[in-house]
Amino acid sequence: MALQRAGKALFRLYPNPTTGEITVEYEQRGTLQVIDMTGRVMLTQLLPAGGGSAMVYLTNVPAGLYQYRYSVDGTVRAVGKITLVK
Q1: For 27, which of 2, 37, 50, 78 is 20 to 30 Å away at the CA?
Q2: Burial of 81 (C-beta count, 10 Å sphere; 0-12/13-18/19+)
Q3: Boundaries of every domain in the chain
Q4: For 46-55, how does the pLDDT look when each residue is reduced to its tens digit (9 = 90+)?
Q5: pTM of the prediction?
């Protein structure tokens, strides 16, 4: 689980490790990116306005260690690592 507060953005992602479905809790509209260790963006998902929670599916992403990045209006608000096991 990751819980980070940067500025006004609260962001939480779980479970970690995951088998392919993650829940994201957030306060501000933003973008979640999942990036492999070579820097390639594997998934980009818009998190809608109003905050709340959203399900993110990593179905087409191979098992491995990834970095995630949550951005609001182009400013990175949270980063961390997530492990995908299949």
Answers
A1: 37
A2: exposed
A3: 2-84
A4: 999 888 899 9
A5: 0.87
Cβ-Cβ contacts under 8 Å for 62 (sequence gap 6 or more): 84, 86
DSSP, residue by residue, 28-57: S-EEEEEE-TTS-EEEEEEE-TT-EEEEEE
Tell me the C-alpha distance between 79 and 50, whole Å.
Answer: 21
- Residue 17: what residue type? P
| Amino acid at residue number 65 | L
Torsion sign across C-alpha atoms 72, 62, 60, 82: negative
- Would you state the CATH architecture of domain 2-84? Sandwich (2.60)
Which tokens is 16 given?
């970690």
